[in-house]
Design brief:
The complex is a heterodimer of chains A (119) and B (114).
Chain A lengths: L4 E3 L2 E4 L5 E6 L6 E8 L3 E9 L14 E5 L5 E5 L8 E8 L13 E2 L3 E5 L1
Chain B lengths: L2 E5 L2 E5 L4 E8 L4 E8 L5 E7 L5 E3 L5 E5 L4 E6 L8 E9 L7 E2 L3 E6 L1
Parallel strand pairs in B: 2-11
Antiparallel strand pairs in B: 1-3, 3-8, 4-5, 4-9, 6-7, 7-8, 9-10, 9-11
The chains are: A mainly beta (119), B mainly beta (114).
């Protein structure tokens, strides 16, 4: 599999429960991004990991949201005490390092997403 | 702050007709601009991008876009629509530098009628 993979593809949970969403980036890609796609808000940036640098968390909507990236590869997005407004498709993307390790020029490759439904 | 506006949430064209999807951006620094396409139940796929250099950029599937700084626009065009072009299209902007994140427009759904 050469692309970005995400699991699960669909997740239905009850309000108040915690969920974990997983992203496997393309091998060798140092940058990893999480976005959220919802009917009311469109596509929103959540968080960005670049190599060993501190992540850019500026898009996380509340402190119920957190993400980590272990070993510079797999990432997990965790939503605690889920609310109905968290229902959305969560997209992960990765990109390869460019000159001097930055990735601004490089294409972000997106995974198929995880559709989260909070009842 | 950067933002992207896509004019028209739905565009309908006949097969063989010109496709024009509009995108305007605001950015205080030279932007990098992107168009992505999303087919049903799939992730986003890059159509084309503008970073520096030639302002008319060509992408996959016969699409192209022109960066017009004076108009702060990056409209997407295709001379002749195919049924397979029916999808949702997103314009996005990224700051030059090392921030990485994309700011997306609200998306435009393209319908192609036979």
């Amino acid at each position: 599999g050469a692309g970005v993979s995400q699991s699960p593809s669909n997740k239905v949970t009850e309000k108040g429960k915690d969920v974990e969403l997983r992203c496997d980036p393309i091998s060798g890609h140092t940058a990893l991004y999480w976005y959220r796609q919802s009917l009311g808000q469109g596509l929103e940036f959540l968080i960005y990991f670049q190599g060993n640098s501190a992540p850019d968390k500026s898009g996380l909507p509340s402190d119920r949201f957190s993400a980590e990236r272990t070993g510079g590869s797999v990432s997990t997005l965790t939503i605690q005490r889920t609310q109905q407004e968290d229902s959305a498709v969560y997209l992960c993307a990765s990109s390869s390092p460019g000159l001097a390790g930055e990735s601004s020029y490089n294409e972000q490759f997106f995974g198929p997403g995880t559709r989260l439904t909070v009842l | 702050a950067q933002s992207v506006t896509q004019l028209g949430s739905h565009v309908s064209v006949s097969e063989g007709a010109l496709v024009l999807l509009r995108c305007n951006y605001s950015s205080s620094v030279p932007p990098y601009l992107f168009w992505y396409v999303q087919y049903p139940n799939q992730g986003l796929q890059l159509l084309l991008k503008y970073t520096t250099g030639a302002t008319l950029v060509k992408g996959i599937n016969g699409f192209e876009a022109e960066f017009k700084k004076s108009e702060t626009s990056f409209h997407l065009t295709k001379p002749s629509a195919h049924m397979s072009d029916a999808a949702e299209y997103f314009c996005a902007v990224r700051r030059s530098g090392n921030t990485g994140k994309l700011i997306f427009g609200q998306g435009t759904t393209l319908q192609v009628k036979p």
